[in-house]
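User: Hello, can you help with two protein structures?

Assistant: Certainly.
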Amino acid sequence: MTVFITGASGWIGRHTVDELLAHGYDVAGLARSDASAQALEAKGAKVVRGDLDDLDSLKRGAADAEAVIHLANKHDFGNQAETNRAERTAVETLLGELEGSGRGFLIAAGVAGLAQGRPATESDPSPFSGPEAPRGGTENLALEYVDCGVRAISLRFSPTTHGHGDHGFISIIAQAAQRTGVSGYIGDGSHGWAACGVEDTAVMIRLGLEMAPSGALLHAVAETSVPTKAIAEAIGAGLKLPVESIDPANAGEQFGFLGAFFGMDLSATSVATRELLDWAPTGPTLVEDIAAGAYFEV
């Protein structure tokens, strides 16, 4: 099977490429730079040159594939409207190419914002619809194509997909600690984040490609809720910095744009996903990765 992956050189994408190649798949990855193209070729993957704004490259990649895994996103937190627009347009383009074919379309989404006061589950529908919604409402857009001959599957990632080399949210929190001299958590730090190691996430993506039915909502969650205070304590221990509670009013000063998210409970379960895919995460926990120096290497 040939699989086209957008975001193939990204954090989750490159591990997904490795996982699929190791299991005999032919992989074609979207690459916008020479360095990304060379890295994919060195692994034995094919290269489709282009990016999310090059809609012809998306059409070419999807046309030649038996399944598409869409992981790319601009992640421009300073211009969320442009990020949402680009995501919506790219997904519309890919779905248009796949419509009526019965081929698979696995799309990156998240567990954040699905539930309040309890961990999110796979039975929780996404409240984000329409072009102005986060990620352009593309999870719901993709699911609309289940009745249009597309095997659409949502890949809902944890707020932290962690590991050595991660430059995501936990890295930003660690950088904030280095900048301010304090490893902070917001309020009493009892609210938690779901978490999953990047290699376990890549395995879940492969199993979803192989086994999940059309319309499935999959949760890449290994830990339901890691208390934010425990995250701050692990970072403080690694950097030898004091650990302190941050008043919610000062969260932006400590964490920048991430302050709003670090103060939220973003917990989730993956019971249904594990049962459906026979998926059992085996990698290190978030705190174990922090303790092992995954976020202090630069």
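That covers the first. Now for the second protein you mentioned:
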Amino acid sequence: MEGTVLIRDVLARRASQGRPAVSFEFFPPKTPEGEQQFFKDVLPRLVQLGPDFCSVTYGAGGSTREKTLTLVERIQKTHRLPSMAHLTCVGSSVAQLREIIEQARRRGILNILALRGDPPRGETGFRPAPDGLTHAWQLVRLLREMGGFCIGVAGFPEGHPECREGKYADWDHLKAKIDAGADFVITQLFFDNADYWEFRDYLHRAGVRVPLIPGVLPILGFQQVDRLTRLCGARVPEKLRRRLEELAGDEEGSMAFGVEYATRQCEELLRGGAPGLHFYTLNRVHSTRQILENLGLARKDSP
């Protein structure tokens, strides 16, 4: 659709300026009250920081499909912020995926994060839908064949937790997604930058040249990190785990430590040439704002 800003162009512009791209991930609020709070308070305060783009997640089994598209459309119209909808293979045939993709196009949504997706609640393993897709690279190929879309994919600096062959095999699978037509990669959260450097260098040696954007989690506390890493398989370095355990029960101290840790992590990533930073905001403002201010990346006129 005319007027829709493609994220690959945003990334190319930032690279030409020698500046990192900053982006935020949001999830669809579960209640009408939560949605009202998101649009009235959370989103405006984060947009004031001057992000380059944002993404909106997609619930397990496609459970938030309509909400995801509605949020992306509304963010683009209300805030003129380039926005990306997550899309998974779960629970949809190819014909249904084509209809969802065309619906996104009609709504002016041309930036898509193509994912295989997690199994629906209660299921332990991924099973493709009848006449559906099995791998994310197939969804990338479908989007590229349909034309007009900017396509992002997910990368795992520590390897996908379901890839039994190990992280190098998983990174080869990621290259297949890029070869199928992906424009950029956003990584899963990680806490040790050595994992990102090894991931990046392996892919560069394999000929990958698209931006590999590190995903950063502003830590709120031990329980949050423990829960999220169990879900995604990320490793918590022992020193970090011990400090979070010491701060358990101290909400303010945990949040301050999380800001400090992420600031140091981001500084090192940027010094090493990372093309941007993608913050898993969890629909919260304080920590992301503090980190960007520490880095000197918050828009100067933000309150």
